[in-house]
Amino acid sequence: MTLRIIATGGTFDKHYNELNGVLGFADSHLPDVIKRSRITISAALEVVSLLDSLDMQDADRQKVLAACQAASEKAIVIVHGTDTMRETAEVLGPVVKDKTIVFTGAMIPYEIANSDALFNFGFACGVAQTLPPGVYVAMNGTIFTWDNVTKNKTAGVFQHGAVSPASAEKPEEPATSDEVAGSGS
Amino acid sequence: MTLRIIATGGTFDKHYNELNGVLGFADSHLPDVIKRSRITISAALEVVSLLDSLDMQDADRQKVLAACQAASEKAIVIVHGTDTMRETAEVLGPVVKDKTIVFTGAMIPYEIANSDALFNFGFACGVAQTLPPGVYVAMNGTIFTWDNVTKNKTAGVFQHGAVSPASAEKPEEPATSDEVAGSGS
Amino acid sequence: MTLRIIATGGTFDKHYNELNGVLGFADSHLPDVIKRSRITISAALEVVSLLDSLDMQDADRQKVLAACQAASEKAIVIVHGTDTMRETAEVLGPVVKDKTIVFTGAMIPYEIANSDALFNFGFACGVAQTLPPGVYVAMNGTIFTWDNVTKNKTAGVFQHGAVSPASAEKPEEPATSDEVAGSGS
Amino acid sequence: MTLRIIATGGTFDKHYNELNGVLGFADSHLPDVIKRSRITISAALEVVSLLDSLDMQDADRQKVLAACQAASEKAIVIVHGTDTMRETAEVLGPVVKDKTIVFTGAMIPYEIANSDALFNFGFACGVAQTLPPGVYVAMNGTIFTWDNVTKNKTAGVFQHGAVSPASAEKPEEPATSDEVAGSGS
InterPro entries under this entry (chains A, B, C, D) (predicted)? Predict the structure, then answer.
């Protein structure tokens, strides 16, 4: 099994600049992330861009598509900003049929306390190896197909759906763990 | 999709006791892990035990089996020590056929810098939702069936195999990321 | 020895809001900071404000002065934004003569990787107990009197001086450690 | 002002070995600690040893003394194990009169969550610059002279005293922060 990790930026990879107090980009954190994860399958990292997904133009999304098409690997994880993850998935979805592509990202940057980044990256690296060819989004411990996902910005989670949840329907809040009685302790 | 997380201890959940300098167990870290992962599917946590897997007896492994059999969920992640993860998987493997059970753990405790714990937990939560029913081990970004996995203690990684690698064959070392030329930056 | 810790905000106490991607303020981190520091002398925490020091008005600085004057403790640490730390120190310096007041802060928020916050806080808690009464700034492992300190925003460090370093004189860069031959290893 | 940092090991600098699960020593963390602290005064690092202080012999303590005597700096911070910090301080105390030497360490290793290491290091770097020549211990946000300090192993804190607290007198527990009403929020 060989995996390709494509970095495009996003909150996941943001870096705090102490001189101006701005969260922007420096080098990707993914080399460190991959190293600490102790991944023994082949995992090639390709940094396509380091952008906030709100700043992505169609040309940027086309670069992501091109990188996927050029890849020899059949399993690809794309680290991407959450705000327009869907939009890039929509560029790939109708086109890429021969590979399993899993988009993921983070609500809290990898370098900030309590980040979901490493969990999401692990989750995506897993399901990229097991899902059938197609384009997916993996966030909040949930797998979505590219055409059935939307970001609920109010709740800060991803949900099934084709459009933004404009109605007041109750969003899925991040779950707290429900401890249940076990067989011992 | 509903998930059950079963905690049994292991390096993943070890806690440094500052009064005696020993790495042992206090409360499981899994409630915090689940919360920071922002999991929106139902994820019930059950603490069956908090043991170093070198200290697990057959009765402890039977408790894990019993917890799996009693679970209503079809997808289960078991956080377990790495030293005898295989042994417990061997207790479940021949018996549990109607659920997807994924063992994972960590080489470095969750509370220590550079831990692989959160990556492994995310990976396992993902593949538990996609693998067909059966018993698996997920470590090092790799999926193993319960009957084809062994821990290479010298290299600190899991490999395919039915027995410990007593020979001097070259173990799979954790990969560093191989950066490749991308389509932009 | 009793200490008072006065929180006013600043980069030290900033918190990442995952819903809008902004670094702002939630609860102060200082209760956790004090707890993990295992401080056995009496250390009373007072949250006067949680402001970016660029947003501080004269009324805000007067509140800090009032808190210092009202305090029964003779040793006070003030956690403050670095951008106008000097300005608040200038309000206290000519007036407070009977207490040792030490301003500190951080260039990187406490909750972000590689933060200087905890080092600075420890440093300030130490020198607040040993310096003679007066008003000081403690940043970059250096002690400054309130009337001889300025923030070099280009280099991101504090230096001696009465005005901002408008000239091109070489700023003091944060030192890397110089390892020297020891008597053993 | 120039500072010398002398590393001798201790819990502060312990490192988790993932292959055998043991907390031992690898390279000192102090280069990283000094770098993230953004120290602008000269701070020379000397690694004299990396030992658990329970394993220190008289010869090891003599090495520490020799390093202090050879140092050109007048302010020295010694990072040392807490269990026999007093014993080494007792070797230096009667002898070193022309420098300010401050011993510190940690109850929780620097690389483990909630460590007091960085706070203690900052505290010591501060008071090393302000205390009169002599030998001191700085732990728990408290300054002790070398001849009036003892480690209360039951409570995991340092206290004034010349002998271990064999009696059942109530030890000083690490304080939680007492929040008091402030002049604003």
Answer: Asp/glu_Ase-like_sf, Asparaginase/glutaminase-like, Asparaginase/glutaminase_AS2, L-asparaginase_N, L-asparaginase_N_sf
